[in-house]
Amino acid sequence: MPKAMPVITEMRKASAGGGMALAGLLSWSSLLAMNKTTCGCLIAALVVALVLSVGVNLFQTLALVGSEMAETEQMEALHEKMVVAGKRDAKAKIVHLDLEGIISSASMGGFLEQALPSVEGIKRGLEQAVADAEVKAIVLRVNSPGGEVTASDIIYNAVKKAAAVKPVVVYMDSVAASGGYYVACGATKVVASETTLTASIGVIMESMSYHELFGKVGLASQTFTSGAFKDTLSGARPMRDDEKMYVQALVNDMYDRFLGIVSEARKVPKELLKSTVADGRVVTGRQALAAKLVDQIGYIEDAYALAKVLGKAPDAAVVKYHAAPNFLSALGLSAGAGQVPAKIELNLGGQVMTKLQPGMMYYLPGSYLH
Q1: Pick from 21, 79, 175, 236: CA 20 to 30 A from residue 38's CA?
Q2: Cα separation of 173 and 299, whole Å?
Q3: Per-residue DSSP letters for 76-109?
Q4: Following DSSP, what letter does each residue of 349-360 receive, concatenated?
Q5: Beta-carbon neighbour count of residue 330 at 10 Å?
Q6: CATH (domain of 176)
Q7: 246-297, pLDDT tens digit by residue?
Q8: Which residues are catalytic, by number?
Q9: What is the distance between the alpha carbons of residues 350 and 153, in angstroms, rounded to a whole number?
Q10: Is residue 28 in some structural domain?
Q11: Is 173 in a helix, a strand, or coil?
């Protein structure tokens, strides 16, 4: 028995040492597995960072190229699409342009570029038509309820300048009201359908009052201004009488300008307009003819025929302008001159419309503000 004790002791030592070795081996394996997981996470993070970096650099590069292409696009001639063939191989042309939707100074760009009438787009088309010796007259089809005061005025001025060089015939489609009619006043002649809704001669401006609602829920707004009129139209407080007079004076000034333009274009005294159709009402094409707001009743073909007569080009073809599409313009990069939009919204509910802003003046029927 005494001789067996050392053996047993040695076996116990060996067993203990093996256990420690096994425990060490397991710890090392766990450490290796943990290191592999950590390395995998690091590699994945690096891959994601690399992809994001490449994406950002690519987008910035496209934006830079788009910015450079924007100037080229401004100079590039618009392409022509035949609408009505000419006769006897005549080289003379009538250019058809479209002004459709709410008139806005905002540019949509990209896939929705045609959703709103572009001020620069209309100006560009008019300028090219005027510069082309083969173009004998222009037909501007207007299907718009109006829009921003300044944007409407800019297009009106461009139409008037073009009409000083070549005949411009405005054809009123379903609606050519307020700002749409304002634009038409720059033309040489105006043709309307019997069912066209037009006129709505006037200016509208609105704000929303919510101070009573704030009072009910225990909210209040604190505003610090540099002058008594700096926060005029704020809905957080009642509007003072002097503010109402001030805003109404602004609206009246814009209305007086609108009235003067209509009076000059249609050769109707301002006072007569004010006492009849210039009170904001919408009228039909037939009523507009009776009020001398348009020159004749007809369809787009009648507008083409009138343009050919005025342009002394009976055999002329009718063409439309369009810009050649490209990848960058589809992304909206070239149209925006490299500016990345802060917010992109897609309206799937129907008509694409610009958001009307409280406190801005519009040549629009009142129903379009709500």
Answers
A1: 21
A2: 8
A3: SPPEEEEEE--STT---EEEEEEEES-BBS----
A4: SS---PPPPTT-
A5: 14
A6: 3.90.226.10
A7: 999 999 999 999 999 999 999 999 999 999 999 999 999 999 999 999 999 9
A8: 178, 230
A9: 28
A10: no
A11: strand
Name the nearest CA neighbour of 115 among 358, 363, 348. 348
Query: Are 352 and 115 in contact, with CB atoms under 8 Å apart?
Result: yes
Length reported for the chain: 370
Provide the token pair at 111.
């896939």
Residue with tokens 């309307």: 192
Decide if 4 is inside a domain.
no
Domain count, the chain: 1
Phi, psi of 190 (to 5 degrees): -130, 125
| Residue 206 main-chain phi, psi, to 5 deg | -145, 165
Q: Is 104 a domain residue? A: yes
* Alpha-carbon distance values, 228 to 3, 35, 232, 246, 306 (Å): 111, 68, 8, 11, 54
Q: Is the pLDDT of residue 104 over 50?
A: yes
Question: 171: which 2 tokens?
Answer: 């054809």
Distances (CA, A) of 128 to 53, 108, 161, 166: 42, 22, 13, 12
CA distance 278 to 258: 10
Q: Which two tokens stand for residue 321?
A: 């302008």
pTM of the model: 0.74
The answer to whether residue 19 is domain-embedded is no
Strands 93-100 and 147-148 turn out to be unpaired
Task: State the residue range of the domain holding 110.
Answer: 76-217+231-369
